[in-house]
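[job 0412] stage=fold_complex status=start
inputs:
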Amino acid sequence: MALFDSSLRVFAAAIVLRLALLVYGGWQDANSAVKYTDIDYLVFTDASRYISRGQSPYARDTYRYTPLLAWMLLPTAWEGGSGPLASIAFAFGKILFALADVVAGWLVVQLLCRCYRMSTERALRYVAAAWLWNPMVANISTRGSSEGLLGVLVAALLWATLTKRAALAGVILGLAVHFKIYPFIYGVSILWWWDAQQDGAAPRKDLSLTSHMLGFITRSRVVLSVSALVTFTSLNVVMYCQYGMPFLHQTFFHHLTRIDHRHNFSPYSTLLYLASAGGASYRFETLAFLPQLLLAVVAIPLALAKKSLATAMLAQTFAFVTFNKVCTSQYFIWYLILLPFYLPSSSLIRKPSLGIAAAALWVLGQALWLSQGYNLEFLGLSAFVPGLFLSSLVFFGINVWILGIVIRDGGTEEFRSSA
Amino acid sequence: MKRRITFAQTPQTPFAADLISLSASTLSVQNLAAAREDRITLSLSELPDELRNVLEQSHELRLRWATERSFDAIAPFASRISPGLHVHYTPQAKNESQDSICTLLRTIFVDHEHGEAVVDCTRPEDSFITTPLVSTRFATSASLQYYTRLADLRSLVAYIRRTACHQQQSGGSACHKRADTLLTADSVDIDYDSISHAVTISGFWAEPPADGWTEEVSKSASDNDKVEFGVLTAEKGIERTEIQMGGLLAVVGEDKKMKPTMFSFPSRHHPLPSDATYSVSFSKPTGLHPTMSITMQPPSLQRPPAPEDATCALHTYLTLPSSVFGDQYQLGTKDTLFLQSHHLAALRAHAGEMDLEAPDWAVQRWGSTWLFELDSPTVDEGASVLKNWTATIPLHLRYLPPSDTGYRTAQVPWPVVFWACTAEDGTKMGVNPFDRTNLGWDGLFGPRTMFYQLHPETGRLVEEIEVPVLKLNNGEGLVTAQIIELGTSFVILLGFLWVLWRLIQVGFLKARPGLRERHEKKE
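[job 0412] stage=fold_complex status=done
writing structure:
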């Protein structure tokens, strides 16, 4: 297709798609009682308004993000204008998120071409399908959800890593973890991946255990760790000095103490409802972090990171989301940005029947759960058991199976990143 | 002790002076058809000790109860509250509320069938909500508020029987009988404030018993105890803000005969015509996001007969138990499209449990209150509204504890609906001998606001919502707590091991290419 010959055309189309959605969203907001804009966006903009009045963003209930986000969205608090100017000011955050989408896509295309030796046309094809032209991605950012920002941070992290910019990678990692805790899992993969060979040293053989361990400490690994830690710590210190305990509580501790009892895709959701209401006797749910972190932080990085960093990160994200105590559809966007690195040489594409089966099963699992969710949420039927309980377990099973495929692909010889 | 008995008749009822006879020491009525208010004022020394101790530590304590049946509230008793028990409490000193108020409420209000306290209160700071005040300067309402559903006053009557009646040396059975009359009351108010140092108990009966009121009231034994008696008819006053009352008054034992009387006063609460009604429902299926519909009949939508220069707006005041809640950000929006689609004008005040995520068992306080200004249809001057008008309020349900049916019931009392109109400066509502304040919603308006009450349609004034919950069969059945626990753990462990096995394959068995080839072939 001639369309994919030129990055200009692909990116122009991605931008036009987002602009159209932004304009449409503005129109729907102005003309319908049902709003296009995400409720979370109103939380961010309210928080920005509090900041513009010299107050804490945490004065807004359910603002559970870094103050950075509310600072970035300060233009939305501007109340001077009217008409189109005011609309643009209100949409500033959405424009920023949509722009972040496009930049993330551009970074991925760059990486695919430079580090994965892919032709521009092929790279564009995959990035367009998974990210740039993905209506879900464009919809989420133009509705004003900040998840898209994570996309650009992860893409940038991978770009800085694969282009061997250790200090920059550390800064991005620190920032990403400050923004949304989960990217810390990538830190482990990147550190494991970045051995002396990656820095150009010859492979060493027949070494003793001590020199093996000493050999682990490389300049790049130290620079990356220190810069990530310094970035993360200094951001937190600054925010803590500015906003005190509410910052720490809302951004970090909330995730430890929250009662995640409302129904969601997670296999734990029924158990958590039961446990929260005081009906569980074994308290297995208190151990839920174990399988999740063992896979996402230890086993996957060790087994896959040196073979294919991007696929390892994808598998980590997949495992983290699949085994998480809460899982909502916005989490699925976390691994979309990593798909273009994995898909081109994956068995899902090589064997279309397997790919189609995986996609079909995943959608089926979603549909099964959503139908039960609809029965509960809108029809008021008691669908917790067996409906939601079983469908969340089935969906979990499908995800685990797909994760198994990703891991096997990531471990195969021909799949190695040529970086 | 002072007692005031008022029989209020509508102007349509033929006035029957011959049904009342007054002698030197007794007054008797025979088959009198009228609404009735009985008001008893007691000094602190006349109260049981436990009650007096609590009251002495309070700045003000006001209990408001209304029945779940709809009833006619005629002038001058036109004000309404949502059915159930409302407690308004201000501690003696700020931030020094007493736990004893909770102990007292738990003692008085007991579920007679299960023997459990219906009031879930340990410390006022934890269980009561803080009332929003328009202005602390006026401070017309108490600072802390509590609500619970309470279908009848059997427990209160039992309490009066075993304390107040028990204390009396003589007349025990008369005391029991009088306490029992509260069982048929449509609303009961109990008021105490530290300025008057007196407790007032008022009962209101909208309808007489089947053959009218028949009663003999004797002069009290003590000279300090006074019994006032009146049969009155209320009408609109000459001023639109006023109510005019005429009829007969007497002090039992003092007056030789009933004294004809006629007086008028500005009134805070006014009734609307009896066809100005509203009804409340939830559209089915309610799901987890029930929408409350308030449907008003055309006569409810006419501007009330307030003075020409007064500004009037239609309002509703919701009292929601913690299982049902509103989203203050969704409802507090200034987006006219949203508000208009629900026939709302604005959210004017809200207080109480506002958490958007917490399940019911994680919510400490009893619930929340919401004052909305409603949009009303615009009609041309002189024209009248022809169609019903429905305002809708989107609400949400909290998760409730599991049950063995998979459902639990949330009981939502009907909100009150009224027009609020501004009154002229200098209107003194307090001179009304039947004035009623501290209803929860009146304090959200300025002190010189007039209220025109819409009447709830006949029926039960509590809506029931079926809330889906986790269905758990205790011990038997397909899905037990154990199945959920073990099932979840087993599936997750299996998934974990499967992923781990895959990782071991690619991580450690890579040196054996034969194995991988076999894998490749299998697909």
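[job 0412] summary: Confidence is low (pLDDT under 50) at residues 511-523 of chain B.
[job 0412] exit 0
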